[in-house]
Amino acid sequence: MNHHPFFANRVAVLGTMHQKEIAIAPPLETELGLKIIVPDNFNTDIFGTFTRDIKRVGTQIETARLKAEKAIEVTGFKIAIASEGSFIPHPHIPYLPCNREILILIDHENDLEIIAEELSTQTNHNHQIITSVTEAQQFAEKIGFPQHGLVVMLKENPDNQSEIIKGITSEAELIEAVNWGLQNSPTGQVHLETDMRAMHNPTRMQNIAKAAQNLVNKLKSCCPQCGTPGFSITKRIPGLPCAACSAPTLLTQAVIYECQKCQFKSVQNYPDGEEFADPANCMYCNP
Predict the structure, then answer these.
(1) Which residues have a Cβ under 8 Å from the Cβ of 287 and sit 6 or more positions away?
(2) Could you tell me the fold of the domain covering 11-123+201-220?
(3) Are 203 and 148 a contacting pair, CB within 8 Å?
(4) How far apart, in whole angstroms, are the C-alpha atoms of residue 200 and residue 197?
(5) Burial of 194 per CB tally in 10 Å (0-12, 13-18, 19+)
(6) Are the CB atoms for 270 and 253 separated by under 8 Å?
(7) What is the per-residue pLDDT across 244-284, written as a single tens digit (0 to 9) for each?
(8) Mean pLDDT of 77-82
(9) What letters, b where the CB count within 10 A reaches 16 and e where it falls short, cover 217-254?
(10) At residue 84, what are phi and psi to the nearest 5 degrees?
């Protein structure tokens, strides 16, 4: 296989402590020729935890960038990769939950920063207040336990890690953790939620893998003018005409690709392969 000239036979350090190399390393190694390593004892919890006992230090992209830069700092390598996930309402369908995965590659040798994203409605992100082991078992069955792990907390926003038990992946561990929580909770209730760390959440791991493939696709897209990787879409232009009345719709008519290095731009019309929109998407034909 022809590997990428920017990355072939170079080492990239992956800033993770949650086994994300399972999802991220294969496409980067196979398609780009990078060798992915994970530093020993690399603590990403300092940048924030899903259990909220440590607040995230910045936006999702800023946090991923901090992880990557820290990985470069502690290892001395020139390329680093890091990811950061969030669970938010869908941007266009507010009542639909989704998982947004950000993946960043920083290459100090070539002065590159490439960001990829995967937005997916495939997620089991969930929580429930429970008062018994039976309620916990019912919740566990609903979220795909034990393949997907669980977390027991004394309250929804814990003060520190002493109020949390993570990584629950067996019936015996669940019963023990819930009993501990009920015995120590001042309200007689326990906050139970899905463990969203990658190694305990196969559904999230699949979305990270998709983000990794998106990153590879971006890196393989090179600027026609200077050859720099990451020649990608920076703007979408709406206005695809209705097939019935030709009025502009909100669907994409064109996209603009731009190089982050030399700022060369290219316009691609009809990126989805359709020159007209279905009238169902037209505000005039289908008000």
Answers:
(1) none
(2) Rossmann fold (3.40.50)
(3) yes
(4) 6
(5) buried
(6) yes
(7) 999 999 999 999 999 989 999 999 999 999 999 999 999 98
(8) 98
(9) ebbebbbeeeebbbbbeeeeeeebbbbeeeeebebbbe
(10) -150, 130
Q: Using DSSP, state whether 283 is helix, strand or coil.
A: coil
pLDDT one-digit tens code per residue, 191-212: 999 999 999 999 999 999 999 9
User: Was domain 127-195 assigned CATH 3.30.70.100?
Assistant: no
Tokens of 21: 């190399």
What CA–CA distance (Å, rounded) separates 119 from 266?
Answer: 25
Query: What CA–CA distance (Å, rounded) separates 156 from 122?
Result: 23
- The values of phi and psi at residue 97, to 5°, are -75, 150
Q: In angstroms, what CA-CA distances link 9 with 28, 32, 160, 215?
A: 11, 9, 43, 18
Can you give the pTM of this predicted structure?
0.91
For the chain, where do the domains classified as CATH 3.40.50 start and end? 11-123+201-220
- 26, 17, 18, 21: which is closest to 37 by C-alpha? 21
Structure tokens at 4: 């990428």
pLDDT band at 5 (very low <50, low <70, confident <90, very high): confident
Nearest to 121 by CA among 99, 88, 101: 99
Which pair of structure tokens corresponds to residue 255? 């996209």
Q: How many Å apart are CA 20 and CA 70, to the nearest integer?
A: 17
| 47-56, 84-93, 170-179: the lowest-pLDDT one | 84-93
R_g over Cα of the chain: 22
Q: Check: CB of residue 105 under 8 Å from CB of residue 99.
A: no
| Contact of 64 with 83, CB cutoff 8 Å | yes
pLDDT at residue 1, rounded to an integer: 56
> Within 10 A of 209 (CB to CB), how many other CB atoms are there?
19
Give the number of other CB atoms < 10 A from CB of residue 16. 23
